[in-house]
UniProtKB/TrEMBL annotation:
<dbReference type="GO" id="GO:0006357">
    <property type="term" value="P:regulation of transcription by RNA polymerase II"/>
</dbReference>
<keyword id="KW-0805">Transcription regulation</keyword>
<dbReference type="GO" id="GO:0003712">
    <property type="term" value="F:transcription coregulator activity"/>
</dbReference>
<dbReference type="GO" id="GO:0016592">
    <property type="term" value="C:mediator complex"/>
</dbReference>
<protein>
    <recommendedName>
        <fullName>Mediator of RNA polymerase II transcription subunit 22</fullName>
    </recommendedName>
</protein>
<dbReference type="Pfam" id="PF06179">
    <property type="entry name" value="Med22"/>
</dbReference>
<comment type="similarity">
    <text>Belongs to the Mediator complex subunit 22 family.</text>
</comment>
<keyword id="KW-0539">Nucleus</keyword>
<comment type="function">
    <text>Component of the Mediator complex, a coactivator involved in the regulated transcription of nearly all RNA polymerase II-dependent genes. Mediator functions as a bridge to convey information from gene-specific regulatory proteins to the basal RNA polymerase II transcription machinery. Mediator is recruited to promoters by direct interactions with regulatory proteins and serves as a scaffold for the assembly of a functional preinitiation complex with RNA polymerase II and the general transcription factors.</text>
</comment>
<dbReference type="InterPro" id="IPR009332">
    <property type="entry name" value="Med22"/>
</dbReference>
<keyword id="KW-0804">Transcription</keyword>
Amino acid sequence: MSISRSLPQSKEALLKSYRTRLKDDVKSMLENFEEIVKLSKGEHDTQLSRMTQCEQDTYEMHVRAANIVRAGESTKQAECDQKLMSLRDDMAADLYDLEEEYYSSINK
C-alpha cells in the first residue's frame, strides 16, 4: 500500500521537474534570441576595430544560436519523457487489469 502512495508523489515531483525544465528552456531560448537581435543591430561603441567587433559578434551569435538549439532539444526530450511515462503508466494499469481478470477466471 505504501508503494501506491509513493508513486503519485514521485510522479508529481517528476512532473514538477519537467515543468521547471520547460520554463527554464523557454526562458533560455527567449533570452538568447533577444541577445541575437541586439547584436544584429551592430551599433557598438568599443575600443575594438570594426572587423574584430564583427567577428566577436558573429561568434557570440553562433554560441547563442547553439544555446537555443540545446534548449529546444531539451524541451523535445522532456516531452518524449512525459509521453513515455504516460505510456508506462497506461501499460501498468492495463497489465494489472489483465492479471486480475486472469487470476479471477482461474478460481471460477
